[in-house]
Design a protein that fits this description.
alpha/beta, 9-stranded mixed sheet, 16 strands, binds flavin-adenine dinucleotide
Amino acid sequence: MILGLIEHDRGTLNPQSLEMLTLARELAAAGDGPLHVLLVGGEAEGLAADLAPYGPAVVHLARHEALVDYAPAAWAQALVDLIAAEKPAAVLAPGSDRGSEVMAHAAARLNLPMAANCTAVTPGEAYRLTRVRWGGSLLEEAWLRGDPKLLTVAPFVLPDDPAPEPGAAVVRPFTPALSEADLLVRVVDRVQPAGDKVSLTEAKVVVSGGRGVGSAEGFDVLGELADLLGGAVGGSRVATNFGWCTHANQIGQTGTRIAPDLYIACGISGAIQHWVGCKGAKQILAVNTDPEAPMVTRATYAVIGDLHEILPALIAEIRRVRPGG
Ligand code: FAD
């Protein structure tokens, strides 16, 4: 049996779980099936039916009165309990912050190796893996042994398509054996960051600025454009270091990785550490004075010129063509 850990936040599915299921289905079809998934917390129960098109035969539901919100060690204990009961050949999780965190806890509790950020697996007694290293600038071939084999799936690499045949998705609730220590780290409160109307990871459009923006005030126009497009504002590490935007806005290897429909990179050179954070975007528009900048040469579209002239002109044009703009 192949087991996939589904990441959700109070019953809202993390889409990277569906990418993970693409690889999990491949492994199940290659002989280690059937495919089962784990949902932790009663709030996730409603997701079971949503997951059926992605092929699971069984949806295990870890219910416990203490599982009211995310708690990494408690999620890991639920996973460890299920592994002991069901003895899967492999366990997969999305390579998101939470997926990686839970799998690391589970691997430590099981004293097993865990391979992070996999993009392809050739099954066998040992799995031959391809995995992303160094923020996406290197692909590594590796072997993974273990019973079960524990791995996370690199975000934004695999498709999130449904299965050719839906799964029965039979729900099997169980109660994990949690201790107080499993709940020492848990979500107790949520604070919406001031000013951000759309979260960076969920925004369909991200307007991002780098050194070329020149100042914190220079980001106002990026915010205006993002608002007009219903998007969010991002920044390069240089912009973050200067305090023009917060670290929560930083895109890249040491920031957030995003995959919006449109990424508008303003005054950003496109250094590899930045590129790995935005390369998942479907379309990239670079605004830069340098026609040779890596962001420009890799972008879908580029406007060569001073962003301080181009962005206000772009905003004015959007307002002009929009009804009621
Ligand atoms: P620059 O590279 O200085 O580029 C500025 C660009 O603006 C240039 O292309 C220039 O032509 C253009 N420009 C200037 N003026 C204008 C104007 N008026 N109009 C239009 N264009 C203009 N960086 C990240 O972004 N995210 C990360 O997560 C990250 N992690 C890192 C991790 C490590 C371990 C290391 C070593 C570095 C990391 N970096 C990261 C830094 C990265 O290497 C680059 O230094 C950084 O991305 C450059 O930021 P920038 O593009 O804003 O600045």
